[in-house]
Amino acid sequence: MAYHVPVLLRESIDGLEIKPNGIYVDLTFGGGGHSTEILKHLSKGKLFAFDQDEEALANAIDDKRFTLIRGNFRFFRNFLRYHGIREVDGILADLGVSSHHFDSPERGFSFRFEGPLDMRMNQKSKKSAKHVVNEYAADDLARVFTLYGELQNAKRLANAICQSRSGKQIETVEQLYELLKPMFPFNQQNKMLAQVFQAIRIEVNQEMFVLEQMLINATKCLKKDGRLVIIAYHSLEDRLVKNYMRSGNFEGDVEKDFYGNVSSPYELVNRKVIVPSDEEIKINSRARSAKLRIGKKI
C-alpha cells in the first residue's frame, strides 16, 4: 500500500526556489515524497520535517541534513527554536489527508471501509470521531456540518444522529453511513457523505484553527524573500490560505497604506492558483481537488 503519492511535486518544489545552503521545513512529511525531492536540491542546507502521526516515523530519511520531528505543525516554530533555528528560507505544507489514512480501515477516515469512528491524525489525541458523533449536542453537530461540511441540511442530520444514539451509541463508520445515506438524494449520496466525514474530521483534528496558527507562525519564521508553499484540497482551507497570503488576515480584508500599497506580509508568486495537470490526475485521482498557492515574504 502506497503511503502517499506527492501531489504537484514539481510545481511545489519549483515554488520553494530552493537555495542549496538554505534551511527548509516540510510541515506534512507523510510518506516523505516532498522531503525526498527537497533534499535533492540541497548541498549543505538542512531540512526539518514534521508529522504528528506515529506511523509516518517509519518513513524517516537517513540523511544527516534531515531531521524528522513528531508533532503537530501548529507548534513547529517552537520545535525549530529548540533546534536552534529561528529563521528559514522556505516552508511547504501539503494539507491533504494521506492516501495511507484513507486506505487504512482502522483509522476510520473513509466510508469506503468498515472500521471504528476514529479520524484522529494523532492517535494519542483524546477526541475521536466517535466522541464528536456521540457526545456533541445537536446544535454543536449542526454547527460542525454547516461550517466544515457546508451542508444545507445540517440540523436535520444532527437531529437524526442524536435520535439514533439515544438508543445505542454510533461506534462504526458503517453505522453512521447507513444512518445518513437515506437523507441525501440518490445521485448525490457519496458526495454529501464525503462532506459529512470531512466536517467531522476537521472538527476532530481542529484543522482550521491549526492552519491559522501555522500561517501566523510561518510568517514569523520566514526570512525576507522566503517562500511559503501550500497545497490545499477543499475550499475552506484554500480560502483561508488565499485570504492570508493576499491580505495578511483570515477574513481577506485588504488594507492599504498611505501610498495605496496592500499591507500584506506576502507577495503572491502565482496570481492564479496552480492546479494539477490532466496527466497528473489520470495517474493520481486524489490530486483532482488540489490547489497550490505560493507566497514570498516581503
The first-level CATH class name of the largest domain: Alpha Beta
Percent helix: 25-40%
Characterize the biggest β-sheet.
Answer: 7 strands, mixed
The gyration radius over C-alpha positions equals 20 Å
Please state roughly what percent of the residues sit in beta strands, choosing from under 5%, 5-15%, 15-25%, 25-35%, 35-45% or over 45%: 5-15%
The CATH homologous superfamily of the largest domain is called Vaccinia Virus protein VP39
Protein structure class: alpha/beta
Average pLDDT confidence is: 93
Strand adjacency order, main sheet: 3-2-1-4-5-7-6
CATH topology (level 3) name of the largest domain: Rossmann fold
Oligomeric state of the chains present here: single chain
* End-to-end Cα distance: 42 Å
**Shape designation:** globular
Write the layout of secondary structure elements.
Blueprint: H1 9-16, E1 23-26, H2 33-40, E2 46-51, E3 66-70, H3 76-82, E4 88-94, H4 99-102, H5 129-135, H6 138-149, H7 154-165, H8 173-180, H9 189-205, H10 207-221, E5 222-232, H11 235-247, E6 266-268, H12 278-283, E7 291-297
Parallel strand pairs: 1-2, 1-4, 2-3, 4-5
Antiparallel strand pairs: 5-7, 6-7
Helix pairs in contact: 6-7, 6-9, 10-11
